[in-house]
Design goal:
The protein is of the alpha/beta class. The chain contains 10 helices and 8 strands. A 6-stranded parallel beta sheet has the order 5-4-1-6-7-8, sandwiched between helices. A two-stranded antiparallel ribbon has the order 2-3. Helix 7 packs across helix 8. The longest helix is centred in the first third of the chain and has 16 residues.
Length: 236
């Protein structure tokens, strides 16, 4: 049996999957439920945690915000996503090469895969479950929005969780993050872990390189390129 020595953390939205339609619908419903009027403008989502998106969305829609706004909004957002389970299957999609990449890594000796996402856990799990990616991922080892931590702190938390679950230490340099936004690159830099950036979100390859990504890919469609980047960055 191979010794576990590498941890791969996946961003979800715009890296593995596109569920933008459902996200917009869920935010609109949650806004209506908590504010009592229609949502006019949703804040940018790439690289942000759910709490950042909520507070910016409230501000963009002229709501004077306090910390008391967050818990009911997140609760309403979680309910709105759960109500759209079938919609995730119908309108969501796995991005090109994502399934092949997680499958190849799942069959690679020594690798544990999980997620590092700005979504709250219930919504994150729903996305990867309904789009049939959950079986490749150790979701109990992931980092999820919880209203307190930055993505950099969540990366450290995910490393610790994965180590505790599997009884091994995953050093910073043996933990690679795969994501799609400059903000994700910044989080990885702060946490001291390498990052593979894919230009499947709103950022270009040039923008991801300028942000400091260790490797940049246009998409995940070239499985060999993904595997080679993971191996090069984790020293295997």
């Amino acid at each position: 049996m191979s010794t576990l020595n590498r941890l791969v953390l996946w961003n979800i939205d715009h890296t593995l999957v596109d569920v933008g339609r459902i996200t917009r619908e869920a935010y609109a419903e949650a806004f209506q439920a908590t504010v009592g009027r229609s949502l006019l403008r949703l804040a940018p989502t790439p690289g942000r945690t759910e709490s950042e998106i909520v507070f910016e969305t409230l501000a963009f829609n002229d709501v004077v915000t306090t910390d008391d706004h967050l818990p009911p909004f997140i609760d309403a957002l979680t309910r709105a996503f759960a109500a759209r389970r079938a919609g995730l299957r119908e309108h969501g999609r796995v991005l090109a090469g994502a399934r092949e990449a997680v499958d190849a890594l799942a069959r690679t000796p020594g690798v544990v895969q999980s997620v590092l996402t700005g979504s709250v856990r219930a919504n994150a799990v729903l996305k990867v479950t309904e789009l049939e990616l959950a079986g490749y991922l150790d979701l109990d080892a992931g980092g999820y929005e919880d209203g307190v931590y930055s993505k950099a702190a969540l990366l450290e938390l995910a490393r610790s969780r994965a180590g505790d679950r599997h009884g091994v230490a995953f050093p910073e340099r043996a933990t690679v993050y795969i994501a799609d936004s400059p903000r994700d690159v910044q989080a990885a830099r702060i946490a001291g872990s390498p990052i593979i950036a894919v230009a499947t979100g709103s950022a270009t390859e040039a923008e991801l390189r300028a942000a400091g990504a260790d490797a940049v890919l246009p998409t995940l469609a070239d499985t060999a390129a993904v595997m080679n980047a993971v191996g090069a960055l984790t020293g295997s």
